[in-house]
Here is the input.
Amino acid sequence: MNLDFNEDQEILRSSAKNFLEKECPKDLVREIEESKEGYSPEIWNKMIELGWTGIAFPEDYGGYGGDFMNLIVLMEEMGRNIIPSPFFSTVVLSGLTILEGGTEEQKKEYLEKIAVGEIIMSLALYEPNGSYNASGITVSATPKDDGYVINGTKMFVNDANIADYLLVVARTEDSDNPEEGVTIFLVEAKASGITCNKVPTMGLDNSCEVIFDNVSIPKANILGEAGKAWEVIQKSSEKAIMAKCAEMVGGAQASLDMTNAYAKERVQYKQPIGKFQVIQHYLADMMIKVGTSRNILYEVSWMVGQNIPCAMKVSAAKSWINEAYKFITERGVQIHGGIGTTRECDIGLYYRRAKTAELILGDTGHHLENIAQEIGL
Amino acid sequence: MNLDFNEDQEILRSSAKNFLEKECPKDLVREIEESKEGYSPEIWNKMIELGWTGIAFPEDYGGYGGDFMNLIVLMEEMGRNIIPSPFFSTVVLSGLTILEGGTEEQKKEYLEKIAVGEIIMSLALYEPNGSYNASGITVSATPKDDGYVINGTKMFVNDANIADYLLVVARTEDSDNPEEGVTIFLVEAKASGITCNKVPTMGLDNSCEVIFDNVSIPKANILGEAGKAWEVIQKSSEKAIMAKCAEMVGGAQASLDMTNAYAKERVQYKQPIGKFQVIQHYLADMMIKVGTSRNILYEVSWMVGQNIPCAMKVSAAKSWINEAYKFITERGVQIHGGIGTTRECDIGLYYRRAKTAELILGDTGHHLENIAQEIGL
Amino acid sequence: MDFSFTPEQEKLKKEFEEFFITEMKKAPPTYETGGLEAMFGSDVGWEFHLYMARELGKKGWLAMAWPEKYGGKDASVIDQVIFSEVRGYYGGPGVDIFGIGIVAPTLLVAASEKQREKFLPPIAKGELMYCQGWSEPNAGSDLASLSTTAVKDEDDYIINGQKIWTSGAHRADWMFILVRTNLEEKRSKGLTYLLLDMKAPGITVRPIEAMDGLHMFNEVFFDDVRVPIANRIGEENKGWEVTRQSMNFERSSIGIFSENQKTIEDLVRFVKETKRDGKPLAENQVIRNKLAELAAETEVGRAMAYNIAWMQEKGGLFLAASAASAAKVFGTELAQRLVYVGADILGQYSQVKESKWAPFHGKFETNYQNCMGLNIAGGTSEIQRNLVAWIGLGLPR
Amino acid sequence: MDFSFTPEQEKLKKEFEEFFITEMKKAPPTYETGGLEAMFGSDVGWEFHLYMARELGKKGWLAMAWPEKYGGKDASVIDQVIFSEVRGYYGGPGVDIFGIGIVAPTLLVAASEKQREKFLPPIAKGELMYCQGWSEPNAGSDLASLSTTAVKDEDDYIINGQKIWTSGAHRADWMFILVRTNLEEKRSKGLTYLLLDMKAPGITVRPIEAMDGLHMFNEVFFDDVRVPIANRIGEENKGWEVTRQSMNFERSSIGIFSENQKTIEDLVRFVKETKRDGKPLAENQVIRNKLAELAAETEVGRAMAYNIAWMQEKGGLFLAASAASAAKVFGTELAQRLVYVGADILGQYSQVKESKWAPFHGKFETNYQNCMGLNIAGGTSEIQRNLVAWIGLGLPR
Here is the structure.
């Protein structure tokens, strides 16, 4: 057992931290999130230059080895210093799905393009029905001529508005078992028949509605094998969940830090409010939740990275961190008082993202039911 | 609108308070609850002399008018100063059921006997299956000759060990609707075929298992009408629930008072612990829960007393007061610290009774489901 | 003991209900979210508020509890609570929580006859809107540390300094303000209570954007702003006492509970109509329990509110003060829980802002962001709990 | 980063598991409830504890982490945590939390070589049981207010005064005690750390009945009790420092989490087997969610515990102190929640004491009453949160 990061990872962490602090101050975050593109091409290019887009993939596919814990370190820092970027959509959601389910050719082609920053991608998974389960996949891909025709609507697709490609999860076959007959298609985001509209969301995070109206896709654009995609989604989701958890833990730590600093500095009734025992206990509870979140994050991420089966633990981590991050940011706002409720105060950025992050890859209710099943209920 | 008690009620309250404080100090409570009989015949006789056993019934049946709010006042005081007695089993559970469902003759006979303190009674309602619903009634009463034969086991029958009569809720007919075919029998507690064993419980509250082995009961002992008892149980339960709620609110107030006093007197780190802000907030939350519990208690009790339909509010009151009482006593123990966890400290008496009281006439989960149905879910 | 309304009150309640049912059909959709956001956040919202204020003024419902000679009806606190309950349920605007809620009760107790005659009628008619000049950047919970000054100059005070968190300052006509008139005196001594016209020269209002981007709050800067001495309420340096005297405004928090009730009814409908994974949400026992819990708490809150009204009616202001703190913290934290449960129920749709994709016009998205404000504004939940402990339980400060 | 155990550790873990599976078959049924109650509450319980202690002593597992020269194995903190995890899961007694947990680590740091040679081996062999003489009636959380005195007389100290909350004093062989040796010095100065034989003349042990009637706690009265000066650990008047030095006992709270895990497994079985109102409890989504939540929290706690072990392994005692406080409060409050959820699930049966009607031998009935003790003993949850705030976050005291 050795629960320390190695030296390379520590270096990665501190360089990421410095870069983000310097390049992405919170005023800029607020500006970016309200822009039409919802990201800064300039900063994105710098992230590419730093090699971040290749961090999750083996060298064979143009990456830098792909130790999963490196991605965790990076995501944690991107959570600590919020950066609106297509990193999660492209590298994590799409990249890891291709890595899991793509053919050798597809991996070679698309992962390398992602690694060198040539393309932005996203995963079109959810639908208007709001389900996180396979039964929610109703967008249809019907065989026609040499390919398929896709019809239906995908919802909450982050960064679809700026993506070059979408991985579209569609139903190619009806089956009693909804986990069968699901297929992923590699689709050009601007293909004819696709309409993409931004959905205005609390997270101001480029969430999109993507409508497919008779979109023709050649057979070659099936990712991996037809009909077997749900298993791919489940496996790559485990990694993506842990990456999202890392982002959340970074954000939770930042929220605690800024609130702790504020409590030491804000004076009311002639003393820093951090001297009031009730505020101390709020902060203690926040610290306990950040600490425990980080502990479970690292353990489960390591297991996922090692391909040790741990579905229950993944859901334990996501459900715990969902609630912890919401709790920490909510208490953070309360301790900040009036200023905490404003757009100019940084704690609000994290508060909003805590809720948005919960909704990505399974809210708490969804993961609790997963756990229930895993423990034999 | 007039939310004050009238003068008679205020007098009743203070005389009850004085009586209980004097006659039933906590050391005696601890002694009584460990005794085989689980009550003090001496104090019980004094309660009868004070006319308490007649408080819930109209004058026609030997009572004192039966303004329901009088019963509430009395129960609240009996909750404030715990008194192990068969009052609730006899007057509330049994008396109000007879008042609701008995024939004129039965009311005349049994209510007067209760009012003058001639008999102790209890309601044998629950069964080993642990259900609070009509479907849980499986003890059978089979017609035979001129009467019925009862078989089966009733559980958690308080004071069955000291009762003269039991009201036994049994199934006389199977039906698709479990609320039909339920009948109440007036049964002599020592009748042949009945075995009664005390079940050792947290509340040390004379909880009994009562086994019926071919117990013959004449037809005349049916309370009211055969097969229609579930409606009676539901209506009298509303009153019994509010009476139990009153007892709980009294107990909650006592728990707050003793904890508040302790917090003012116990010195640690050179100051009364009640000066620590965290302790203040615990106590504030306790006070809020006591206050709100009393508010909903009085409103709903008044409505029940006026026969205004309010099933949802009854369940709202019970579910809220269940949780409030548990919360208040739990925080009470925590604020008392070590001494709070001992048998010699009074807060523990209330902590144990809070849980026991929750389980009588519907735990929180049961009442939440009632509410859900009432609000249209 | 009698929890029933009088026949007159039953009649009044029906009138209130009919009024709001009719009038709220004219409300812009932003009113779905309720709260101050709808009023202050948009021009249409504000105009509807003004419209409703004047209509309510005509009915005489704004000043119900005032003595007749100032345009009131000498109504009981219970009548007022019935009004607030109905208004809360329908989410109706029109009541200036500052003018009607705070200034008027203060004037009734602490102002001169002349001042009452001047200032009360426009409030009663719904014609003049107030904002509140209390908090400052360094005085949030701790109002005794106020540092905005007023110096006498002939017939005027000259005000310099800054206020913050002034809800609706960008829309209000007048402000009531606490200023420091004696720099020697410390803490709560040396403060004075003034009314001032927001159009006075030297006032600058700077918006503060709320978390969800809406504009409710403001900073207000005072640069040699002149206020006639005649606008001082009570004595100079006695402003703290003046504010303390005005506790007999209706403090039951009833509106929170009736608004909650409406929201729960909406959510019940939603979960019955909405299927997820092939099953109506209403069949999920977790959702059933959570909504049931909130419904129970809302009933509890309602009972609490009427009890406070009753205490106020009887004049038990001291006990009512602790109870009002209790109601405030209970009510706002309950409202917050309700928003969170609603958001859980809406799932991915809880994040959607007012748009074609948003259930309830984005109510849960915006309330998710402003529900904490309720636990902060008007005395934080921490201060309220302190007060319950100190006043209600006699614990040492 | 590597969360795996070494092959040796995996082997060790298996050995631990096999040992407890085999031996716990001999346990009296009271051990179903777990905790100190089972040990101290009955003669059979105590005898089984002594039996297990000697068996564990023979295996060398009690003193695993000690230097070899005192009978230990120089094992890592991780090894110890693995042991505690397995022991917690099976609810095994045999480890004297006072002797093994507190006295021995203190002696290792603060005692003389001679003292170590005398006092450590009987602890390592599981032959001598200790109790803790810390709290006094007026010094619960605030240990610095201790007033039990020790006065030197030739080769002895003479002790007078009273201790309270002494778990197992009625069964222990020895006590470690903090006494005041200098009345001039205030608060935490002037205290001295002694070891004393519970059979010494002048000691009276009075039982304190716990809420559920069991006998774990005691008051201990000292009337001119003589303790040889040779039994003083560290310098006179430096007892506070001595206790503070002994922080390097294993503080991960892992046992709470593995015990929880076992309880959850038991409850899962129970809800699958138990029907109420015609449906297995396991189909109730509320029960599913609650058990899932507790299972998640238990996983979280386990990860936290191993992280503390790792910090301790690396010697980061200062940070580990805050983390250990966090783990204690997290663990005991989680255990309490689990008891409450279990009680909710059991419904009416949750109130039944050990008897033929009681599920789990009355575990939930008794734990319902003693679970708060966990939040009080060994530093209340309030103190632990203070420590997290002060040490972990640097907030002002």
Observations:
- DSSP finds twelve helices and ten strands in chain D.
- The mean pLDDT of chain D is 93.
- Residues 7-95 of chain D form one domain.
- The two ends of chain D are 36 Å apart (CA to CA).
